[in-house]
Amino acid sequence: MRILGGVLLWLWLLLLQDSPQRIKHLIRVVHPGIESRFPLDYELVEMRDKAGKPLRYSMEVESVVCGDEQCRVDRIGIIWDKFGSFENLSLPVGTYLEKAEGIPFAPEDYQRLEQLLQDPYSPLRTLSKYELVGTLGSEGVDALSGATILLEKSAYVSGAVWTCYSLWHWVYGAARDSIRQITAKSMDGATLSGLLFSPEIRIREFALEQVTARRDYASETLDAVSKAVVQQPGLLVDYYAYWEGMPDDGYWQTGIFLLENLPPLSRIDLWRYIARSERYLPEGTLDDLVLPFSSMEYVEIDAFLDVLERKNAASSLIIHRLIPLLGHQNVLIARRVNWFLKTRTLNPDDGPR
Amino acid sequence: MKRRKFFEKSALGTLGAGLLPLTAFSMDVECDVDVNSGSHRGQSSDPEQWYQLGTGKRARPDRKVEKAYDVVVIGGGAAGICAAVAAARNGAKVVIVQDRPVFGGNSSSEIRVHLNGVNQLKNGLPERETGIIEEILLHNRFYNPQDSYPVWDHVLYDFVSREPNIDIKLNTSALRAIMKGGRIAAAHCWQLTTETEYTFNAQIFIDCSGDGLLAATAGAKYRTGREASAEFGEKYAPKEADGWQMGSTVLLGSKDMGKPMPFVPPLFTIPYEAHKAHRERALTPFELGFWWVELGSEDDIVGEYEDSKHKLLGYAYGVWDYLKNSGKFPETENYALDWVSSLPGKRESRRFIGDYILSEPDMLGYRHFDDAVAFGGWSLDEHNPGGMLNLEEPPSYFHEDFEEPYQIPFRSLYSANVPNLLFAGRNISQTHIALSSSRIMATCALEGQAVGTAAALCSKFGVMPRELGAKYMHELQEQLLRDDAFIPYRVASRPGDLAKDAAVIFASSTSSGSAESLTDGISRDYAGKAHHWQSETLPAHIQVEWVEEVALSTVEIKCDTNVKKNIMLRRDSLEDKIYTTQVPKEMLKSCHLEGRINGSWVKVAEIQDNKVRRLRLSFPTAKVTAIRVALLETYGKPQVKLFEIRCYA
Asked: Which superkingdom does the taxonomy of this entry point to (chain A) (predicted)?
């Protein structure tokens, strides 16, 4: 059904060929299956809506980069949405994909292939074409004639490993990066910031990736990014690259906002990031931080104290807040705080206030 | 009935051995002497026979040495090495007796078979062996990056000789068992190079020699040939039992000389009848020889060996002659033979009878054994009866691959009727069809580690193997797991491990798995379940904390070496998805250990340039409330993955 849709789309693309809504971009592609010392030029076609905004993209490619010289090669189209996510294949009328020994793809093979192409983490990702097949045999090296597929069966369509490999790398190669850049370029900061709150995580990741690339630290963007991370702590790992690019001014203010609003597990992750980071943490910076010390788990207390120790950032106010934890019912916490405080010079007014 | 008859008729070879005189058990006696009296131990030698120009006339030395050990290991292949090292590391005094000048058996430079194991299951991936055999293969990756077989021999020599509890006797054949009270009291051996007779006394004997001459002369029951299908319900066994055993192979190697190289076959060459050959007798690639140049036997395969070898050399040269001179392989024009083995690699001969005979249904049914101590997973790869005499058939029947590893029980690794005799390797208690899979060397090596450990525990507990299996199986399996062997589905209970009592265990960062998994008792991801922790970045650390102070002197961790990739030495230095010639990039290279002592972190141990999966950080006993393992560097991967942490007093 999706392939039929692809065929119709292909016809639609043909009709649009001379339309001003169809923009061609020359891109340079390195495909792991193609032996070439230099990137090859390919034509990425951007389709725009009536407002002139990117709608989707297509590129015509060889159906298979053949590793065993036994493949039939056709020109077919790949369609992506505007965020570079694979949508479907587009086969010209009369074109069909072929498996080993010339057997045409069955409808379920097409369905399976499109499922595989929607997986950005496919095992095909890390393989070179030389790793795709090998020989298996008895104790010797020559063994049985014929290739043995060195992949989990779920990672390819049986009899069509080269097709799966070729197409997956077209889908997730340079074309996808170009698509994301072209689309982002068509958006202003407010639009990108708005996408940070998309219900779809792939779109939120796209937005964060692009604001990071733009080094957009305008206060409204900064605010949007911080709130988006709080709303979706899964973005934290990608957020570090954005945060690290930020100038000192406002850096810790942003950090404190996150520490006060993230859930405990993400907060621990952030503490550890801070401990590893080379950013200078001036003493007193964390004085404004409001955290529920008494209800924090040991692991977080340990991570927090680790930051204070490594950054030498314990102010007298922080010490004052820690002292009640000496009586914590969790022995590990009380002991850890005790040992931390023993390394500090306490003032008479550090006691409970 | 038939089976019973077979047992009864086996191994009368004990008769002579039982009559041999026993020698003193409790002391080592070295008699490397001039026997001028001419009467030493009943030998005679003319005191003037040998005119030594430097020192004068004297008698020919009559060299006899008698020594006592806890464990005698016969055979220096993968199984024997692992047995000896396991026994030695677990406290036993060991001698390893090897009848060749090098260690390695079929994998040595003399034969050059790949040290295969669970190379590839049905899912396309390996489930590689860990423990001592992995340590050996890693040792080779570090010290033999050039993939040289002669160097591999010495990688193995280095690996064994560095063990302080092992005496090595190369070029030494174990000729017969000396029996006392139904047990083996000593192994009578002959060292070719020194003209020395050795008598090795011990409590436990492990026969890893493949053919098992010592065991046979001890009267241990064995069988040869193929079981009838009905006996064990084996669908791939023949309907009627017969004597066929899989054959031995002569491998060869060639190299491109860069110019045409004519080939004139030697006179013993047997022309290769290519027109008769089954299509699976592939002639290309040709560079590294043909595993199917093989001759089996349906009778006395041991006794026929030298005659078979002569024929095998003829067949091997015949195939090469066909490649070079038939005109059908122009690509061989510049190639010349570079090496031809003079020692055919054996696949099958005696299979000794234990308390359990492992069979095909156990393997294909993935039977769980409470006394499982090893595993295998090479396909049921039954070579063609007759080998080169039966060209029309496929060279081997790859009956079936495995979904997951099968288990090997301890009861298949000791003799049913000689109480102090253990086995590891192709001579264990199993059927012919079971052997078609389990004969693979890394599988044999796991059996070796199991019986070596068992032998040491027998000494420790003062029991024989059967009693050990009945009363101390938990101890045996736990020791194997601690020493990084893997037993499918066996969860380590880790007695004495203080990490189990920790209040909390956590990591500096986690990209997959969880820090808690490090104490879950399974030290690899298995059956679709994760048992690891992996950091996001490096450096990283794992922290373990206790409520009460604990006294520690050892912390052991198991790191990732990617058991989904094969790392054995191969003649083709293959590099692909499941084979590599490289040190695993996942493996931990350096780390240090800190203990929290009186509230302060104190570095207590460190390891640089680690070369093993199971790292042991030892230090003077320290009282700590926490430890922190700082994981600094891998051999290339930007994250570090661990599978286990243990802490001992």
From this structure: Bacteria
**A30 in contact with B, Cβ within 8 Å:** no
- Contact criterion met (CB below 8 Å) for B491 and B520: yes
Instruction: Tell me the two tokens of residue B565.
Output: 């990739």
The verdict on a CB contact (< 8 Å) between A272 and B508 is yes
Nearest to B440 by CA among B181, B106, B44: B106
Q: How many residues does chain A have?
A: 353
Domain architecture of chain B: domains with CATH = 24-38+64-244+347-488 (3.50.50.60), 245-340 (no CATH), 498-648 (2.60.120.260)
DSSP 8-state code for residue B193: G
B597: closest chain A residue by CA? A339
B124, B383, B504 ranked by CB distance to A149: nearest: B124
Q: Are B52 and B58 in contact (CB under 8 A)?
A: yes
> Is the ipTM value over 0.95, yes or no?
no
The Cα–Cα gap between B155 and B52 comes to 38
Number of cross-chain residue pairs from A and B with Cβ atoms under 8 Å apart: 98
- The beta strand positions in chain A, using DSSP E, are 22-29, 40-48, 54-62, 75-81, 86-90, 133-134, 148-149
Three-class SS state of A82 = coil
Give the strand pairing for B540-559 and B588-597: unpaired
CB contact under 8 A, A141 and B578: no
> Is some CB atom of chain B closer than 8 A to the CB atom of A265?
no
Cα dihedral across residues B568, B571, B576, B577: positive or negative: negative
Q: Identify how many contiguous H helices and E strands chain B contains and give both numbers.
A: 13, 30
Cis peptide preceding B465, ω within 30 of 0: no
Contact between residue B46 and residue B38 where contact means Cβ atoms under 8 Å apart: yes
Tell me the pLDDT of chain A (353 aa) as tens digits. 455 455 555 555 555 554 558 899 999 888 877 766 677 889 999 999 888 899 999 999 887 766 555 666 778 899 999 999 999 999 888 888 888 777 888 999 999 899 899 998 887 887 776 666 654 444 544 333 334 555 666 778 888 888 888 899 999 999 999 999 999 999 999 999 999 999 999 999 999 999 999 999 999 999 999 999 999 999 998 999 999 999 988 899 999 999 999 999 999 999 999 998 889 998 888 988 888 888 899 999 999 999 999 998 888 889 989 999 999 999 999 999 999 998 887 776 665 54
Within 8 A by CB and 6+ apart from B211, the residues are B302, B346, B349, B350, B427
Q: Which helix (H) or strand (E) holds B67?
A: strand B63-68
Candidates A136, A332, A342; nearest CB to B504: A332
